[in-house]
Design brief:
Layout: H1 6-25, H2 30-33, E1 40-45, H3 57-63, E2 67-71, E3 78-84, H4 98-115, E4 119-125, E5 129-137, H5 139-151, H6 164-173, E6 179-184, H7 193-202, E7 204-211, E8 223-227, E9 234-238, H8 242-266, E10 269-274, H9 279-294
Parallel strand pairs: 3-4, 3-6, 6-7, 7-10
Antiparallel strand pairs: 1-2, 4-5, 8-9
Length: 295
């Protein structure tokens, strides 16, 4: 976990993540945010500083003068981070646990959004709402969110995580149409799929799926003790057993398939973030994928 102050963490993100994203995306953050709470809003006459990619050629031909499409992203976006901070988020290597990836992602996206004049809020959740940070803009708001994340205690054990209350409560907490990031490993008891559907009908939702490679495939390292990060239950296994490793992988693939089906049914796009992948590359990959889907 971090020993840095919120200010130092934000400086690191600015220098090592935001600057790289600026270079790779060339300022085209529409490829990230277009589609999230950015419905078509209006048509207006073209002005010299407008992006020519947004000219509506059909209307231009009818009116005999250039017109551009305006989207809500030209105005203020309100973004919310629904953050799963249950014990399973502390799984991963010494350097990069899922919680570390969560904090880096939230800091990066909050910084990008507020830097462009938008507002961000957050709901910190274990098996209850621990903290609600109302949506505001500016750099100080990013520091507020980061500070609360860094101060959040690491839970040793809980019953199995249930994401349903987080999603259900967010439906009443988030009043206006917003861009909603659900950042979680989605290791939860069943039932959260229905409120996810409802949330997707009301807002533009992006599921940020945190995962570690060891959750999908076990290495052949001999006898080990596996411990459930949520409950603390332990199981002695022999990873030399090829059949056991194959069964573990099969169950992981089944869970992955069920998650993909739930997200597809809810109409929710997914950004997969691994503890071993470079955050900038993951964000750029996602942005390019969305750009291709729209072209």
């Amino acid at each position: 976990m971090y020993t840095q102050t919120p200010e130092r963490l934000l400086q690191r993100i600015d220098w090592h993540v935001i600057r790289r994203l600026d270079g790779l995306l060339q300022g085209d953050y529409r490829s990230l945010f277009y589609g999230f709470g950015v419905d078509f809003a209006d048509l207006r006459e073209y002005q010299p500083e407008d992006d020519i990619r947004y000219i509506d050629w059909n209307v231009t031909a009818r009116m005999n003068t250039p017109y551009v499409r305006q989207y809500m992203e030209d105005r203020e976006i309100t973004a919310w981070f629904l953050l799963d901070l249950s014990p399973s988020e502390d799984f991963g290597g010494v350097e990069n646990q899922k919680r570390t990836v969560l904090i880096d992602f939230v800091t990066t996206l909050a910084r990008l959004l507020t830097r462009h004049g938008n507002r961000v809020g957050a709901i910190l959740y274990t098996n209850r709402i621990d903290r609600l940070i109302p949506a505001r803009g500016g750099r100080l708001q990013v520091l507020h969110v980061v500070n609360d994340l860094l101060k959040q205690p690491i839970l040793s054990r809980t019953p199995f995580t249930d994401l349903t209350p987080l999603l259900e409560n967010s439906l009443s907490i988030i009043k206006r149409r917003s861009l909603v990031f659900i950042v979680s490993d989605f290791i939860s008891v069943p039932g959260w799929e229905r409120p996810l559907n409802l949330l997707g009908q009301k807002h533009e939702v992006l599921a940020v799926h945190l995962w570690d490679p060891l959750e999908k495939e076990l290495p052949d390292i001999g006898p080990v003790v596996l411990e459930d990060a949520e409950t603390g239950e332990q199981l002695f296994v022999d990873t030399h057993d090829a059949r056991f490793r194959a069964k573990f992988k099969e169950l992981a693939l089944q869970r992955e398939s069920a998650l993909a089906a739930a997200f597809k049914h809810a109409g929710v796009d997914v950004l997969h973030l691994s503890t071993e992948e470079d955050l900038v590359q993951a964000i750029v990959r996602f942005a390019l994928k969305r750009k291709q889907q729209r072209s």
